[in-house]
Amino acid sequence: MEDSARALSTVPCLSIADKADSIAGMFALGLQPTGSKDPFALRRQANGIVKTIAEHKLAVSLRSVVL
User: Fold this and answer.
1) How far is it, in rounded angstroms, from Cα 39 to Cα 31?
2) Which residues have C-beta within 8 Å of that of residue 25, sequence separation ≥ 6?
3) pLDDT at 5 over 80
4) SS3 47
């Protein structure tokens, strides 16, 4: 039972990592969203990160994420 609980807590972290990697990659390529265009859904992915953190009540320091 302990392994399945650990696996379930890993899923949100992997989801956040995947979304953050996509966002960072697009910014590295110079593909930032503009006011009227967001062809790679970067805003939706950023919102997904916030939603995952809130739903799973994860304690995340923004400073540690950004730096």
Assistant:
1) 9
2) none
3) no
4) helix
Can you tell me the distance from the alpha carbon of 7 to that of 9, in angstroms, rounded to the nearest whole number? 5
Residue with the two structure tokens 């110079």: 30
- The single-letter code of the amino acid at 21 is D
The Cα–Cα gap between 65 and 26 comes to 17
Using CA atoms, how far apart are residues 43 and 64, in angstroms rounded to an integer?
21
Determine the Cα–Cα distance for residues 34 and 56; give it in Å rounded to an integer.
30
pLDDT, tens digit (0-9, with 9 covering 90-100), for 24-66: 999 999 988 888 888 888 999 999 999 999 998 888 887 876 7
